[in-house]
Amino acid sequence: MRISILSDFHLGYERFRDDAYRQAEEALRKAAEVSDMMIIPGDIFDNRSPRPDVIAEAINLFRNLSCRKWNAKVVDFKGEGSFYTTLPIIAIPGTHERRAQDAADPVDILGLAGLVVDISNATAVVECGGEKVAVRGIGGIADDRFRQVVQKEAPAPIEGVFNVFMFHESLYELLPFNKDFMRYDELPKGFDLYVSGHIHNRVEADVHGKKLLIPGSTVLTQLKAGEQGGKGFFVFDTKTSRYEFIEIRSRRFVLLKINAADIAGADQIDHIRLKIDEAIREGDGIPVIRVMVEGARKKSHDFDMELNDIPRRYAGSAIVEISRNGISGDTVREALASDQVVFERMSVRDYGMSIFLEKARAAGIRTGKIGPAELLDLLGSDSSKDKVLGKALDALSG
Ligand SMILES: [Mn+2]
C-alpha cells in the first residue's frame, strides 16, 4: 500500500492564512492522487479553538477528499472513541489543537463529522486488496506525559500486518536542549514505520532499525533556517519500504544573514537592499525574506529609520522581515536569541510551556495528574483569578 504522510497544515495561521489553506489543499489533492491511504500526525489547525470560518476551510478540504473513490478502507478500530467513516484518512490532534483531557478538540469535530478517522488513543486498520496496515496513534500531549502514556498504554504492533506508530512530540535527538524529551530508543518497539508531526522541517531518521519520517509543516511558520527547503509530504510504499518526498508549491523563504560590521557605514543599507534584490530574482512569487543584521557598526537613528523602512519599500515584491542583533533597543531580542537552539526548532508556545513546567516543579506542584498543558489551559480558561485557581486546585487534587 502507498501511504501518504502529511502534517502541520496550521489552518487559520494568521500571518499566512491563505498560504496555509492553499498549500494544505495542494498537498492533500496531490497525496490523494498518488497514495492509497493518508495519515496526518497533527496540527491540522493552528489553534485549539478555531473560528467557524477556519473550521469551514478544513471541512471543505476534507470533503473534497471524501468525494474521491478510495480503494482502501478502514476495517477495524480499537481503542478510545470510534470511527465514523471508512475513508482511509487517519489523523491525530497535535499540540496546537490540544485541549484539557476529555474536552473535544477540533480534530474530534472532523472525526465526528466522518471526514477523518481520529486515532488520538487508538488503532485503525486499513485494508486494500487483501493487504492490511494498522496505524496506532497517540495524539499530541505534553512532553513529560508522553513517556508516561507510552509506558502505560504500551502501544504494540498487530501481528501479520504492516504497523505504523503515529505521534506528535518533541524528540531529544532532534531537540537536544531538554533531557526530558523522549529518545528514539524509548519509542515502542516492533513497528514498521514511525511518523511524527510537530517538527516543521523535514526529518528522515532511523528508530529501532525502521524509518522515522516527519514531513514538516506545509506552511511557513517559524522562519528558521530549516524552513528554507521545500514543503511537501512523504509517500511510503509498504511493499518496498521505499519512500519519496513530493514537493508542493509553497511560498519561498530566504534567510539572509548580514554582518553589517563588514560593510562601510554609508553602504550598509545599500548592501542589504542589494542582497534582498538578489534573493527576489532567484525565484518566483513573493518570497518571505528574513534579514538578520548582525554586528551593526552604525547605531544611528538614521540607520534604524532606514532599516525599518526596508519592508515597506518591498511591499508587493517580497515580505521582508528585519531581525536586528546588536542594535540598540533590541535587548529583548538578544536575550531570547541567546537560547538559539531553543528558537531554532521549538515554537514559542512550547518554550513558554517548558518555562511554566520549570516554575511548577520549583514550586513543588506535581502536574502528573492532569498534565502541565491542561493545567496551563485551565489557568487561562477564565478571566476570574479565583475561578481558575479553584478549577486548577480541583483538577490537581481530583
Ligand atoms: Mn506544528
How would you describe the overall organization of this protein?
Helices cover 32% and strands 22% of the residues. Helix 1 (17-34) runs parallel beside helix 2. Residues 327-331 have low confidence and may be disordered. The chain contains eleven helices and 16 strands. It is globular, with a radius of gyration of 23 Å. It is of the alpha/beta class and 398 residues long. The chain folds into three domains: 2-247, Metallo-dependent phosphatases (Purple Acid Phosphatase, chain A, domain 2, 4-Layer Sandwich), CATH 3.60.21.10; 253-329, no CATH class; 348-397, no CATH class. Helix 5 (268-281) links the parallel strand 14 and strand 15. The chain starts with a strand and ends with a helix. A seven-stranded mixed beta sheet has the order 3-6-7-8-9-11-10, with no helix packed on it. A six-stranded mixed beta sheet has the order 5-4-2-1-12-13, with helices on one face. Manganese (II) ion is lined by residues 8, 43, 94, 96, 198, 200, 217.
